[in-house]
């Protein structure tokens, strides 16, 4: 296992030496800790696969270096980096048995046969294909084949890291939960450094200790699921994590008060706003209540989604969502109350710290 350091990495596809290249990765400067379980989360086209392929050596970055345990591996091939990689679609040898497919990476490295057998049996059990061990892979379904790909990624215990690129896309939903839980358990047991690409927030939040949120070729926040929920660093994180996402309202700032369409909202402190920034107020729907006293609001509709109600409303001319417990009463003429401590202020889309309030970070 190794710490993976990305040292000022940037990447542009297409011919080298263009005056104004279009960067698929703008600037990534970050360390992935030895033994960490990370998810790279973001929408389609934000650069997740590009970043993963730079780590594995499938792609050479246009700028910057990549280090494993402090050693520069930028010029090294995938094989020389000693990485296991699992892709979105199955990569299996159809003419080999399921057992031999799993044994292949170990036999390739001349691991003693007794050890090969022990490891392959463990993995067969994990992916629930024990009864298929002696059958040729060509007869399997796409999702069984993908389980073999996953198993091949996990069979070696001596890799520097295991990289997963949306590995559960073709797996049925029930099996997804099981495999994800097993990956997590394997991580706890063996301490592999794991990097897992996904655009699915549930997948990212359940798998990873640290979620790396990417947007438009940049890492916008790295944090625990709780940090991403409570203190989104960028309005995109607020919007992308959570369902519905964070409310983002255009707001003016007057000391420790936000002004939204003429309504004054107390803040937990005085936000530090650089120069002429565009300012917004962010609050998650879970931290707004409908009360008898408070700010005027127009209710548009109430969606009952089982254990919760989502209230869609208009506040000071802007759309707003409120999440209520299923049994919560909505007063006859409801008003809005914000949980002051849960309000984040954004300047040019980035979260501003509150001066001296100890809420930064
Ligand atoms: N081989 C390529 N040549 C040119 N442009 C590319 C190539 N691969 C990716 N891109 C572009 O680079 C950007 C980042 O793509 P990337 O595949 O890394 O994103 P992603 O977040 O993994 O998306 P997805 O979830 O759809 O796979 C996109 O604009 C994409 O069109």
Highlighted features:
361 residues, alpha+beta, 6-stranded mixed sheet, 4-stranded antiparallel sheet, 9 helices, 23 strands, 24% helix, globular, ATP hydrolysis activity, ABC_transpr_MalK/UgpC-like, cell inner membrane
Largest sheet: 6 strands, mixed
Please state the average pLDDT score: 91
Q: Strand arrangement, largest sheet?
A: 6-7-8-3-9-10
Q: Please give the radius of gyration in angstroms.
A: 24 Å
CATH architecture of the largest domain: 3-Layer(aba) Sandwich
Q: What fraction of the residues are assigned to beta strands by DSSP? A: 25-35%
CATH level 1 name of the largest domain: Alpha Beta
Which residues form runs of ≥5 with pLDDT under 50? none
What structural category arises from helix and sheet content?
A: alpha+beta
Structural notes for this entry:
The strands form six sheets. Strands 6-7-8-3-9-10 form a six-stranded mixed sheet, with helices on both faces. The protein has a four-stranded antiparallel sheet with strand order 2-1-4-5, covered by helices on one side. A four-stranded antiparallel sheet has the order 11-15-22-23. Strand 7, helix 6 and strand 8 form a beta-alpha-beta unit. The mean pLDDT is 91. The protein folds into two domains: 227 residues, P-loop containing nucleotide triphosphate hydrolases (Rossmann fold), CATH 3.40.50.300; 109 residues, no CATH class. The longest helix is centred in the middle third of the chain and has 18 residues. 24% of the residues lie in helices and 32% in strands. Bound molecules: adenosine-5'-triphosphate. The site of adenosine-5'-triphosphate has 11 residues, from helix 1. Its main location: membrane.
């Amino acid at each position: 296992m190794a710490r993976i350091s990305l040292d000022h990495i940037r990447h542009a596809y297409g011919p080298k030496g263009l005056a104004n290249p279009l960067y698929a990765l703008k600037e990534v400067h970050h360390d992935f800790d030895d033994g960490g379980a990370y998810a790279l989360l973001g929408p389609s086209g934000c650069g997740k696969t590009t970043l993963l392929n730079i780590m594995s050596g499938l792609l050479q970055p246009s700028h910057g270096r990549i280090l494993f345990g402090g050693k520069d591996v930028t010029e090294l091939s995938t094989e020389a980096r000693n990485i296991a990689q699992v892709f979105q679609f199955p990569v299996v040898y159809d003419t080999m048995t399921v057992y031999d497919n799993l044994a292949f990476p170990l036999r390739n490295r001349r691991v003693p046969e007794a050890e090969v057998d022990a490891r392959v049996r463990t993995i067969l059990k994990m992916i629930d294909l024990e009864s298929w061990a002696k059958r040729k892979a060509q007869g399997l379904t796409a999702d069984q084949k993908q389980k073999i790909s996953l198993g091949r990624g996990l069979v070696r215990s001596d890799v520097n890291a295991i990289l997963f690129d949306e590995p559960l896309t073709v797996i049925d939903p029930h099996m997804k939960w099981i495999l994800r839980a097993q990956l997590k358990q394997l991580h706890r047991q063996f301490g592999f450094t794991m990097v897992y690409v996904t655009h699915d927030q549930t997948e990212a939040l359940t798998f990873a200790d640290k979620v790396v949120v990417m947007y438009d070729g940049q890492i916008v926040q790295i944090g625990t699921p709780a940090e991403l929920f409570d203190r989104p660093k960028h309005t995109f994180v607020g919007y992308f994590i959570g369902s519905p996402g964070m409310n983002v309202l255009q707001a003016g700032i007057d000391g420790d008060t936000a002004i939204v369409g003429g309504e004054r909202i107390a803040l937990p402190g005085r936000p530090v706003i650089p120069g002429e920034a565009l300012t917004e107020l962010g609050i998650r729907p879970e931290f707004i209540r409908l009360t008898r006293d408070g700010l005027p609001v127009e209710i548009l509709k109430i969606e009952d989604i089982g254990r919760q109600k989502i209230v869609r409303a208009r506040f000071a001319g802007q759309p707003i969502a409120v999440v209520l417990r299923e049994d919560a009463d909505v007063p006859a003429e409801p008003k809005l109350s914000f949980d002051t401590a849960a309000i984040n202020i954004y300047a040019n889309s980035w979260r501003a710290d509150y001066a001296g309030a100890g809420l930064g970070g």
